[in-house]
Write a structure and sequence with these properties.
Layout (H helix, E strand, L loop, with lengths): L2 H13 L2 H8 L3 H15 L4 E3 L4 E3 L1 H28 L4 E7 L7 H13 L3 E7 L2 H9 L5 E5 L10 E15 L13 H4 L4 E4 L1 H4 L2 H11 L6 E5 L2 H9 L5 E4 L11 E4 L6 E9 L4 H12 L1
Parallel strand pairs: 3-4, 3-5, 7-8
Antiparallel strand pairs: 1-2, 5-11, 6-9, 6-10, 6-11
């Protein structure tokens, strides 16, 4: 039995007239009659009573009609879903991001646009360190990642990175700190004060890059506290425990206890990279297109 047998039967059962049903189906009457006989032989029961003057449903045909309609509806629904999934309009999008990515306007706007444009796609967001994002995308556990790195990230074959934002680094201090609001502030000056930094396993390489910049400026990092969360990082800075260096986008987190001062060093920059598989899933390809257009 094939779906065409069900379609032919439903049309005959609704019209109760072979000639009219054949015309609606776009076939001649003899092949239609043959298909109905094959269906009845396959099921093993008579579905229609036929005479030269009328066609009626048997009791078995009446019951079968309802099931046939449901089967056809489910088949059409399956086809529609498959097409939507192939276009990236249904399914799931798994996005990983570092701590600062949600504060990047392009990222936040892209997520909002994607949700509005593809409401049937389940959006799963996870905060994951940069190196772990790469591994998750590589093994298929994540579709798109956002990681921070001054230079293009080194990726295994099959993954691609696109720079979506390059921004200056800022020194965050409390308002009473002697470096607060200083013009032409350089890392070498900031390195003379105790630092509050992210734990290396949480920042995906940002802390290591910061240490490298400080050492290149001729100083050594003096770490007074290592933290795991953005709120803790900035809270300790506001409390005067130490200073920290953050990307400019994190300057959106305003507080009366914080002052952000741009670093003047030309190399004091960072970037956000979007990473996904070269052969991205349809949902990921749609999302990447939105990010790049934002």
């Amino acid at each position: 039995m094939e779906l065409r047998h069900l379609r032919y039967f439903v049309q005959v059962a609704e019209d109760l007239h072979f000639a009219r049903a054949a015309a609606r189906l776009g076939i001649s009457q003899p092949p239609l009659s043959l298909q109905i006989r094959q269906l009845e032989e396959w099921i093993g029961v008579r579905l229609l009573d036929r005479t030269s003057r009328r066609v009626t449903l048997t009791p078995a045909g009446t019951v079968f009609l309802q099931g046939a309609k449901r089967a056809l509806a489910e088949a059409e629904r399956a086809v529609s879903i498959a097409r939507d999934v192939a276009r990236g309009e249904q399914g799931e999008l798994r996005v990983g991001f570092n701590a600062s990515a949600p504060f990047v306007p392009q990222v936040a706007a892209a997520i909002n646009t994607f949700r509005a444009r593809y409401p049937e796609v389940r959006l799963a967001l996870s905060e994951v360190a940069g190196t772990a994002q790469v591994e998750a995308i590589l093994v298929g556990g994540m579709d798109v990642g956002f990681l921070r790195s001054a230079a293009p990230p080194v990726l295994p074959p099959g993954l691609v990175a696109t720079c979506i934002l390059r921004e200056r680094l800022m020194l965050a201090t409390n308002p009473d700190h002697p470096l607060a609001g200083r013009r032409d502030l350089r890392l070498a000056e900031a390195a003379a004060f105790p630092l509050v930094v992210y734990g290396s396993h949480r920042c995906g390489g940002f802390t290591e890059e910061l240490f490298a910049l400080i050492r290149a400026a001729g100083a050594e990092p003096d770490v007074v506290q290592t933290v795991q969360e953005v709120s803790t990082l900035l809270g300790l800075v506001a409390a005067g425990i130490g200073i920290t260096v953050v990307a400019q986008s994190l300057g959106a987190l305003r507080s009366t206890g914080l002052v952000y001062t741009q670093l003047a060093d030309p190399e004091a920059v960072s970037a956000i990279w979007m990473v996904h598989a070269t052969a991205a899933a349809p949902t990921a390809a749609n999302f990447a297109e939105i990010v790049q257009a934002t």
